[in-house]
């Protein structure tokens, strides 16, 4: 990702998400706490921003790959667009 996010901020976010534990409440019963192995906390305010950063990088990489294929002439052959 080429968004120039400070390494210190990335380290803080990585550490923050490694600390995740949660439990499940169903009716009036609460489960034991367990570690979150992946993902982000539901309802977290940082979620939409992190998602936007991720999707933005996916789009950027897709555009780069598309342009590379266009330059090589592969897209013309495959999709008959030229």
List descriptors:
two-stranded antiparallel sheet, elongated, two-stranded antiparallel ribbon, 82 residues, 54% helix
Radius of gyration, taken over Cα atoms and rounded to an integer in Å: 20 Å
| Number of distinct beta strands | 4
Number of domains: 1
Structural class: mainly alpha
Q: What proportion of the residues form beta strands (DSSP E)? A: 5-15%
Weakly predicted, low-confidence segments: none
Describe the global form.
Answer: elongated
- Biggest beta sheet attributes: 2 strands, antiparallel
Order of helices and strands: HEEEEHH
Helix content: 40-55%
End-to-end Cα distance, whole Å, is 31 Å
Strand order of the largest sheet: 1-4
Tally the helices: what do you get?
A: 3
Please tell me the overall pLDDT: 80
Architecture overview:
This protein has 82 residues and is mainly α. It has one domain. 54% of the residues lie in helices and 10% in strands. It is built from 3 helices and 4 strands; from the N terminus they run H-E-E-E-E-H-H. The chain has helices at residues 7-18, 47-72, 74-79; strands spanning 21-22, 25-26, 29-30, 34-35. The strands form 2 sheets. The protein has a two-stranded antiparallel ribbon with strand order 1-4. The longest helix has 26 residues, at 47-72. The radius of gyration is 20 Å and the shape is elongated. The protein starts with 6 loop residues before the first helix and ends with a helix.
């Amino acid at each position: 990702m080429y968004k120039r996010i400070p390494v210190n901020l990335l380290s803080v976010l990585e550490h923050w998400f490694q600390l995740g534990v949660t439990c499940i409440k169903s009716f009036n019963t609460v489960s034991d706490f367990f570690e979150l192995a992946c993902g982000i906390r539901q309802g977290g305010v940082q979620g939409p921003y992190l998602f936007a950063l991720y999707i933005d990088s996916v789009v950027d990489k897709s555009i780069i790959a598309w342009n590379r294929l266009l330059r090589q002439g592969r897209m013309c052959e495959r999709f008959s667009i030229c």
